[in-house]
Prior knowledge:
The chain has 173 residues and is an alpha/beta fold. It is built from 6 helices and 5 strands.
Amino acid sequence: MDHSYRAALNGNGDNGKARRPGFSAAYPIGEPEPLPAPALGAASRVFAFVEDLFFLTKIQDTGRKMNVKVEFIRTEKDLTDHMKNNGEEKPSLIIFDLNNANAKPLTLIPKLKSKLKKGTSIIGFLSHVQGDLKQKAHEVGCDMVLPRSAFSQNLPQLLRRHGAVEPDLNTAG
């Protein structure tokens, strides 16, 4: 197919017409800047109950790019063990694949919410057609429930926000 007309229009396809205000060309949103590399042996602040290999790989790769350590968990006991290894620091973010039957997200989320209080965000993702599951996840305490596509798109920002270590106010100035 001949696309030489695009060159004549400078690639914008608007036939030289002025655009309406507020309807400018869409600019791709770049990835956020990665965080500074974590110290060796630093505690993980992000945990994920994800077994789907596609999303597991996507979260791993994005975490690596953003310098955020993400630990993948299979059971509640695994999470408890990892949290004990972290000492006093609680996780900042727990990600649930709401279709992960082995994790039992609808029974585990309320337990985690009562144990971890407000310091930890719980985000779930699911297929966009699962409206009932989305509603149930919100009811049991999931802070945010996203369709898979929105989760993938927002993953770098989520990891950057929750992977950053808060400055210690006791040692500041």
